[in-house]
Design brief:
The chain is of the alpha/beta class. The protein is built from eight helices and 14 strands. The protein folds into two domains: about 140 residues, NAD(P)-binding Rossmann-like Domain (Rossmann fold, 3-Layer(aba) Sandwich), CATH 3.40.50.720; about 190 residues, Dihydrodipicolinate Reductase, domain 2, CATH 3.30.360.10. The strands form two sheets. It has a seven-stranded mixed beta sheet with strand order 3-4-2-1-5-6-7, sandwiched between helices. Bound molecules: adenosine-2'-5'-diphosphate (A2P).
């Protein structure tokens, strides 16, 4: 039952978390291949008690590989996923390359695990903001029909990769030392700042690509083309956990006690809702945690019918938003 596993993008922010998650969950591994660009050849990465050398990614890298976890960006996925599949591997792809293709399942294991059965060699891992939002609201979605989701994200630097996390650190130091702020990776200074998500804007609609991913992926994962979702995605000055303010417009009146109870039977979400001491989920506390945390669950102040709800969610972008979700998909394959 042990598998030969490859990690494409092993030296990246998500790649490093693949190693941690595979080790922590004791994923049955016969052999582990670490792949990155030629720049990383010579590096070794720690896995359990061994140090594994990083190899240069090539089309031939996938001989004997059974599961290939890709997280090196969408152009690398487009170039190499087909070779991996043709050599017999199942690809779990963290990029946006194949998410909307009809024969590629897009899976959050707690929500639509049965979709993996339809794969033809590639299974896509959803966008991090989509995963965190859907985990946060899925028990409510199961209880009551949702007409509309309005969501604002507060996204960490980690979503732009390891180099962006490093740049945020350098920017913070430079800012405090009154030095010029380096902006090689990120388009604008992020330290002590925030800006509209750095993906490109579709001029006609005014939505950026991150927002469009959230819209399209949500419909695909829920198999619900009619759900109306409107995101505003913002990059903020945090390292690795994304936060989201979510408003749900329901078809029927909600009951918050019933909602809170419904999360007890749903793994992967913790309720942290302590209004009496003003204590709710925070990126610093959720960083490094597997679960998505939710709080500030409340009825709309002015909606007497209780058909509008608000909540606040925080999830580690590198874990449930990326590496953990992908490894959970791999576990479903076992
Ligand atoms: P490398 O470290 O050798 O550049 P992040 O998302 O944190 O930016 O990480 C991106 C990952 O994708 C890194 O592991 C990086 O490897 C890898 N990568 C980037 N470009 C290539 C490439 N041309 N071939 C293989 N891996 C690549």
């Amino acid at each position: 039952m042990s598998k030969v596993v490859a990690i494409v993008g092993a030296t990246g922010a998500v790649g490093q978390e693949f190693l941690n998650v595979l080790e922590k969950r004791n994923f049955p591994i016969k052999d582990l291949k670490l792949l990155a660009s030629s720049r990383s050849v010579g590096k070794k990465l720690k896995f359990k008690d061994t140090e594994i050398p990083v190899e240069e990614l090539k089309e031939s890298s996938f001989h004997n590989v059974e599961i290939a976890l890709f997280s090196a960006g969408s152009s690398i996925s487009k170039t190499y996923a087909a070779s991996a599949v043709s050599l017999g591997a199942i690809v779990i792809d963290n990029s946006s390359a194949f998410r909307m293709e009809e024969d590629v399942p897009l899976v959050v294991p707690e929500i639509n695990p049965e979709d993996i059965k339809t794969h033809k060699g590639i299974i896509a891992n959803p966008n991090c903001s989509t995963i965190i939002m859907l985990m946060a609201i899925y028990p409510i979605y199961k209880l009551y029909p949702i007409k509309k989701i309005i969501v604002s994200t507060y996204q960490a630097a980690s979503g732009a990769g390891a180099a962006a996390m490093k740049e945020l650190e350098l920017q913070a130091r430079a800012f405090l030392n009154n030095e010029p702020i380096p902006t090689k990776v990120l388009p604008y200074p992020l330290a002590f700042n925030l800006f509209s998500h750095n993906s490109s804007i579709d001029i006609e609609s005014g939505y950026n690509q991150e927002e469009i991913k959230m819209i399209k992926e949500t419909k695909k994962i829920l198999h619900n083309p009619n759900i109306h979702i409107s995101p505003t995605c913002i990059r903020v000055s945090t390292f690795r956990a994304h936060a989201e303010s979510i408003t749900l417009e329901l078809e029927v009146s909600a009951n918050i006690e019933e909602i809170k109870n419904s999360y007890k039977n749903f793994s992967g979400v913790q309720i942290l809702d302590r209004p009496e001491i003003n204590y709710f989920p925070m990126p610093l506390e959720v960083s490094g945690k597997d679960d998505v945390y939710i709080g500030r669950i409340r009825y709309d102040y002015e909606d007497k019918e209780k058909k509008v709800l608000h909540l606040f969610a925080v999830g580690d972008q590198l874990l449930k938003g990326a590496a953990l979700n992908a490894v959970q998909i791999a576990e479903l394959l076992l």
